[in-house]
Specification:
Elements (H helix, E strand, L loop, with lengths): L4 E5 L5 H10 L5 E5 L11 H17 L4 E4 L2 H14 L5 E2 L5 H6 L4 E6 L1 H5 L1 H10 L5 E6 L3 H6 L3 H12 L8 E5 L7 H8 L3 E3 L2 H14 L12 E5 L3 H13 L1
Parallel strand pairs: 1-2, 1-3, 2-9, 3-4, 5-6, 5-7, 7-8
Bound molecules: D-glutamic acid (DGL).
């Protein structure tokens, strides 16, 4: 079925997932809403997030999207269940911190870095209950303000904040799970501080799940040419342009 794949995030973080989707499903058409007007999601409460994300979902449904990818850990951990109840006929695929990947790889000392909302969420607690190795130490840490600094491309402040958050874990961990889709955009800066630590993010897993859902529901695009990619940033045209540039530069 040749309708679009809808994606949303509170800004450019969703690009990390869009990029993986394009890699494995190049012939699909994409419509990505960057809800930068409401960034940061991670510092809001559930009620507000449900209202905000419902508006975005409705805009994607107006575009006749055949599946909606919540390219945001905060929106997924706070609202995915309610969005599924509210929009019963819609297929949703969400993003959660890749705690299972750390578990499957048998890491022993893992830092999970996510937004303040995600860090405290019930969903992350459930994942830890289900996927924590018995002998694994977990540090569940909030990257307060980090997503907005990345959204605003404030490199100097990003460096300072990362240094402050990550310094206590230097030489103490073997892995870090990036539990916010904005964070892979500063992977290099994280690696520079933590050196040999494995950096885990869930974007490939999300892309594979989207493919699986499309196959399962017989919704794969039948075209054999490359699809269209449309990005809409609701704050400014400059931010839309910046996202196309990031997407095309990697
Ligand atoms: N990129 C989002 C996430 O994965 C949210 C960032 C924010 O707006 O706080 O959680």
């Amino acid at each position: 079925m040749n309708n679009k794949i809808g994606i949303f995030d509170s800004g450019l973080g969703g690009l990390t997932i869009l990029k993986e989707l394009i890699n494995i499903l190049p012939n699909e058409d994409y419509y990505f809403i960057e809800d930068s007007m409401n960034n940061p999601y991670g510092e809001k409460d559930e009620e507000e997030l449900l209202k905000i994300t419902s508006d975005v979902v409705e805009n994607l449904l107006k575009e006749k999207c055949k599946i909606i990818v919540i390219a945001c850990n905060t929106a997924t951990t706070s609202c995915m269940k309610k969005l599924k109840e509210k929009y019963k006929d819609t297929i949703f695929v969400g993003t959660v911190p890749a705690i299972k990947v750390a578990y499957d790889n048998n890491y022993k000392k893992t830092l999970i870095l996510s937004t303040p909302y995600t860090m405290k969420s019930k969903r992350v607690n459930e994942l830890l209950r289900d996927y924590k190795n018995e002998d694994q130490e977990i540090y569940n840490v909030s990257g307060e303000n980090l997503a907005s600094l990345i959204e605003n491309d404030n490199q100097e402040e990003i460096k300072k904040l990362l240094e402050k958050i990550l310094s206590p874990y230097k030489n103490k961990i073997d892995s870090i799970v990036l539990g916010c889709t904005h964070y892979p955009l500063v992977k290099k800066q994280i690696q520079a501080i933590l050196k040999d630590v494995a950096i885990i993010d869930g974007s490939i897993g999300v892309a594979k799940e989207v493919k699986h859902q499309l196959e399962l529901n017989n919704l794969l695009n039948s075209k054999n040419t490359r699809g269209d990619i449309k990005i809409f940033n609701n704050k400014s045209l400059d931010l839309t342009k910046r996202s196309y540039d990031i997407l095309n530069s990697k």
